[in-house]
Amino acid sequence: MPPEVGGVERLERRLEDVVAVIQDFAALRFGARAPVGPAGDVVDAVAAGVNSLGEELEAFSEELERRVAERTAELAVATEELRRRALRDDLTGLANRAAFFERLAQRLAAADRRGTGCAVLYLDLDGFKTVNDTLGHAAGDRLLVEVARRLTEELRAGDTAARVGGDEFLVLLDEVVSGEAALAVARRVEQRLRAPHVLGGRTVTAPASIGVAAAPDGPTDADGLVAAADAAMYEAKRWEQGGCVLVGTGARPGDDPRQREVVPRPARPHS
Amino acid sequence: MSDQLQQVTHEKFRMWLRPDGIVELAWAPHVPSGLPDALAAIDAMTRLTGGRAAPLLVHTADAGPQDRAARMEFIRRQEVVSAVALVVGNPLSRMMATFFINVSRPEVATRSFEDEVAACAWLATFLD
Q: What 8-state DSSP symbol labels residue B109?
């Protein structure tokens, strides 16, 4: 027997309600629900089934969003750790060459806005090879870590210290009023590094030769400034182990007062 | 045993402990149930059995729909039952039982039955 006309219309309305909810789901609105009547008939079963699927979709969607947020946070932490490692010297925790040159380039680019100049110190340990050869690489590593610690303690918060080679370090003095002020810092560092180290029960010394180049007195580009400090460091090393030389002055305690210009060597590649 | 609680009546269900050890749950007709009702049912089950897992016979033939939070709570607290028989009787109850078994996927043995006698016979196999 065919259903009465009014019954068909009611059935269509109930099914339209269900269809509307399905369309909401298609638009990712999983909170939509179809009315479930008291009859418990097949339309109610369809409506309740669609509602239950919507609940599952909603729960799945929330779980998915939670997992995505969790993974995104983990990825951000990992990315930050990779970035940190890419810019850090693993052994000493200081900046590496890439990080140093990035920081120096930023500082030089901001030179016009800053009231004071900056300077670069180039340090090379004079007794490092002997320590490595006689006490072993582990002792050499401990020496480098200790040097990094002492170096850092002599610097201010805005300064940057980097290890750029086996026993070579670079320092950016973020704010110095003159080359002489930078030289004074270099001398303080040199004195601090001159103090003996105790490694595996042995007392060793590893004085540093330090070249100092200040901007804007000297070169105003990163490569030129580092090359000038490098050349000054070799000049200091030429005199004797341990000592400081400022580019353009040859300043050194007890030195002949003549003003010697240290000619910067070509820049080393920094990447 | 004489002073043990035999029946719990709630605004949405009635639950009682049979002499053979099977617990029966009858939901109020056509009334939707949610998480508070599931919590109340689990509490009632615990009170009736003293916390010991027992077979549960659920009359769902004219029950209303049950939401996901309620289903998940029954899944989470399965330690109160040793087996569940869902007695169905109309399209809605069949759909809800099938959904509970296949989607919520309880770990405790759970089946739907059209016939109450068959359901009781199956549950009896889970009595201590």
A: E
